[in-house]
Amino acid sequence: MADEIIMYGTTWCPDCVRAKSVFKQLGVTYKWVDIAADAGAAAEVERINKGFKSVPTIIFPDGAVLVEPSRAELEKKLSRA
């Protein structure tokens, strides 16, 4: 299990941009992984999402996974992280 938040996404994804904005506003650090540039990461996202390349896929240190979360869902999770 990772000890940091990992966000899998793409640079063209508007939901990824929104999630990055939430992290920045809350001062939360995370590791960004661009699945368009990393085939292994793309395969991991597909594994997590049962064959779909759904982004953002965000993995938390506690093992929780959020896929395409709304702003409210992400803010709620980060307030407990």
Automatic annotation (TrEMBL):
PROSITE patterns: GLUTAREDOXIN_2. Pfam families: Glutaredoxin. GO terms for molecular function: electron transfer activity. Residues 5-60 form the Glutaredoxin domain. It comes from the Bacteria. GO terms for biological process: cell redox homeostasis. This is Glutaredoxin or related protein. It comes from Dehalogenimonas alkenigignens.
